[in-house]
Specification:
Layout: H1 4-11, E1 16-21, H2 25-35, E2 41-47, H3 51-57, E3 65-67, H4 70-74, E4 81-84, H5 91-100, E5 104-107, H6 115-128, E6 132-134, H7 142-152, E7 159-168, H8 186-202, E8 206-214, E9 222-229, E10 233-241, E11 246-253, E12 256-261, E13 269-271, H9 275-286, H10 293-300, H11 307-322, H12 330-349, E14 353-354, H13 355-358
Parallel strand pairs: 1-2, 1-4, 2-3, 4-5, 5-6, 7-10
Antiparallel strand pairs: 7-11, 8-9, 8-14, 9-10, 11-12, 12-13
């Protein structure tokens, strides 16, 4: 494992040489597309057991070394850092192996599929002294950043409650997402994002959760969560594969409401507590505007045009080059994972689960959850 001094010497002012582990559809259309255009970045290696996916990925990184598994990639001395974006079930093992080989890690969520895997990964991350960032990229969306500032300034007064929806449109569900055993299901895939966003926006932890889960087109593809956060803030969230594309947050306070839709909003809507002020806010925010057209056209072009992907990966690369910590990190990933797995436990037992009781023996909690 590299010492801190060696890492600084290697990365300061140098090109960040990245290996990508997992070359599926998202890696090809998002991660490789972005990395290939970032300044100071060179994709030097790819790891993917499916030869067809590997060949397709090399179109984006034609000079990269192709590997059939990530262990082979991690042996390459020219790799400074890795981006892990394979199926959920392999996230923890790949990230832990990378850290043990002295590679900085950008790990897509969830960081693991069990608490034990998550704890081991956090312990390895802490020992390594390396950068371990988690792909909660929506923290870097301008809407979420603006919402956090509004909440911090008490624009809507004292918080009373919040709710969110995150669902995907109809379409083919990848095979590994269809079963929990392979790391699939809506809780690990979508809820993990919103649990982290709640922590980010409100600056407090989830203390308990009650969940109901349904299997409609695939295993555990729909879920409803009732969460309680610090200071007894209630939050309700709905998640689904195939219920229509939606990603919306609403927060209610003593002086009004804050809301935004990541797919359609160009700004965060703040409205007063009365019906009249809300009507005027709606008329103002929903009226046609020419400056909305480029935004909406970009949204129609697909997932890869979500601005937070590029911002998050650039944040990681900058951290590697400067050898400085990057948030959200693997510990943040563990906080989200603990809530998601507690939600699974709640759904299976039909009762509310305390996160503190569920996560006995977990890693010590860090207070600061802001990026």
């Amino acid at each position: 494992m590299n010492t801190e001094g060696e890492s600084v010497a290697r990365n300061r002012g140098a090109t960040c040489r990245i290996g990508v582990i997992g070359c599926g559809r998202i890696a090809q259309s998002v991660h490789l597309e972005i990395l290939s255009g970032l300044p100071g970045v060179r994709v030097v290696a790819l790891a993917e057991p499916d030869s067809h996916k590997l060949d397709a990925a090399r179109v984006r990184a034609p000079t990269s070394v192709g590997c059939s598994d990530y262990a082979e990639l991690l042996e390459l001395p020219e790799v400074d850092a890795v981006v892990v974006c394979g199926p959920n079930a392999m996230h923890a093992a790949a990230a832990e192996a990378a850290l043990e080989r002295g590679k900085h890690v950008y790990l897509e969520k969830p960081i693991a599929t069990t608490l034990d895997e998550g704890r081991h990964l956090v312990e390895t991350y802490r020992r390594s002294g390396l950068i371990g960032m988690v792909g909660f990229n929506y923290r870097f969306n301008p809407l979420n950043d603006a919402a956090r500032r509004h909440l911090a300034s008490a624009r809507i007064g004292d918080l009373i409650g919040a709710r969110s929806i995150f669902s995907t449109g109809p379409g083919e569900i990848p095979a590994w997402k269809r079963t929990r055993e392979s790391g699939g299901g809506v809780l690990l895939d979508l809820a993990s994002h919103h649990v982290d966003m709640m922590r980010f926006l409100f600056g407090r932890e989830v203390t308990e959760v009650f969940a109901s889960v349904q299997s409609r087109r695939s295993e555990a593809d729909t879920a409803l969560l009732h969460m309680l956060m610090g200071d007894d803030l209630p939050v309700q969230s709905f998640f689904s594969f195939g219920a229509g594309a939606e990603d919306r947050f609403e927060a209610y306070g003593s002086q009004g409401r804050m809301s935004f839709n990541r797919h359609r909003s160009t700004h965060v809507e703040i409205s007063g507590p009365s019906q009249v002020t809300r009507l005027f806010s709606w008329l103002r925010d929903e009226s046609p505007s020419l400056d909305r057209i480029p935004f909406l056209l970009g949204k129609l072009r697909g997932t890869g045009h979500e601005p937070s992907f590029r911002s998050a990966l650039m944040h990681f690369v900058t951290a590697v080059q400067a050898n400085k910590p990057a948030l959200p990190d693997i510990e943040d990933g563990y906080r989200s994972l603990a809530v998601v797995l507690a939600a699974e436990e709640s759904a299976s037992r039909g009762r509310t689960v305390s996160i503190r009781d569920w996560d006995r023996g977990g890693v010590p909690r860090r207070v600061n959850v802001a990026s």
